[in-house]
Fold each of these.
Amino acid sequence: MRQLKHALLTASKLVGLFRLAGYLTGGGLRILCFHGVSLADEHRFRPKLFMQADTFEGRLALLQRHGFPVLPLGEAVERLREGTLPPRAVAITVDDGFYGTYGEAMPRLRRLGMPATLYVTSYYVLKPGPVFELVVQYMFWKTRRVEVDLGGLGPATPLAVSLRDEAAQKRVMHQIIDYGNAQGDEAVRSELLRKLGARLGVDYEEIIRRRLFGLMSLEEVRDLAAQGVDVQAHTHRHCFPEEEWAARKELADNRAVLEPATGRRLEHFCYPSGVWSARHWPWLASEGMKTATTCDEGLNYPGTPVLALRRFIDGEDVSTLEFEAELSGFSELVRTGRQAIRRLLEVGGARSLTCLLAAFAP
């Protein structure tokens, strides 16, 4: 299926459909979403979440080579509403605040003079260690052992686990994650990771040394803000609850960490994991948030709700051709066509579709 998609995209580009799509969708704001830049092999472990530095640099070079205007997010959204947005305008966003963003992504953006909005979740900014859940999952992915003793790493972890059994491996992995999350103490979680690494034959000290799955420090956030990077809100604990008091607390805790470091009020928000609801909008508006981005695919037009902006989520698993298809607007037109056909089938069934196709027959 992926080969067929690639062939169709190649043919579409060769006959000029990407260029035509760029003309037809030129008024739409393209918001790109990146996450982590790999420091080791994270891009192979989670290709949707991490990409190689060379891949990231290639994306920026493509934007520059094809003349896409890259604007700061706030300016881009304001100009979209005013009707002054340049054709095929792009805004770049980077989620979470991984150390790789500081060490690899931001220097490349700065070298090319491209602005970006960095959404930072702040809990691990205050903690020196890596994101616990990601490291547990990474260790199970990384290990080459086929049977391990995991007894004592949780209340019910078995003495012998066959890692050839994917269901058993997944079950015990989540037992360890749940147990670690219930501890509420990073020192305890760190010791748990050290023990797990020893059992699985994965060097936890190397993960710490290279800062894999770690976020940038408060000093590094402060450094980026001093360089003019647009640091914005992404909650404190990477969650945005449905309960109003809890959602507002996430924002307040996030602001309490980031605003003193940046020296300015946070005005733009990113929904963690792309989970959002229209119920959130009045809370965000009352907190002074001017925009909020989702993980929903698509371009943004003047009628797009500013608290539900769409983005294209990039990653190592996205080919250059697929990236070009999104940038050109070709993928957007394909999605729109699919939705129109789906609605047609729901309303009038296959007979209506047959009549529509007949109308375009020679």
Amino acid sequence: MTSPTLDDIRRDLTDEQDALDAVVAPLTPDDWAKPTPSPGWTVADQIGHLTYFDGTAVTAIVDPDEFARSTEELLRSLGSTDAERATLFRDLTPNDLYERWRANRQRLAAAGATLDEKQRIPWYGPSMSAKSFLTARLMECWAHGQDVVDAVGATRPATDRLRHIAQLGVITRGWTYANRKEEAPAGEVRVELTAPSGATWTWGPDDAGDAVRGPAEDFCLVVTQRRHVDDTALAVTGAAARDWMEKAQAFAGGATSGPPKGGRR
């Protein structure tokens, strides 16, 4: 499987944002206030979250020192009402938040265009390569977009842009365990996914005793903790693969668990 270029990821990030925009644009004020599967978060909160971190991503690219300062400030305020209000833009009306989200996406596209593949960008954990950094923004847009789609009953067709998220899901297997301060089970896991286009994406040795096989969209839903593995069409073989799929976390931040079986269908 050919590795995507930085330009591929930039383009797909913009396309993923536009796909979510198509879902959000026709929403009414009542829709923006609807609860999403994330406890305590409305549709507006999901878009506010994307807006805030697209903005801090710009800062991380163009002014790493300011990013470090603002990160310290954010960490000191975590858990407070003020921090939640600021990072979710809860003081903005839906229309103003929508426009802020669009503006921050444009700023991120401009900043991302200055990156080259050798750069590393600071983030809320280890620094990331330019490719991984923009892939993480794509993953965040898709995952939080799924919360919006679930909340309003919208349709967002799966595309082969999921390849980036699946790749991130695979390479963060070790992170999933390190983040939980656990040892990863020994052995390799074979991953074979069917893309929305019908192509097959594979990772890991052919002869691995453990394997995860099935639709790419389902794999992405599991590694972003939007579905429990038992609520998908994934076929999981072996104890190590099963343990991974029950704990998988493709995103930064403290260790979290996805929904229980039957929690989000």
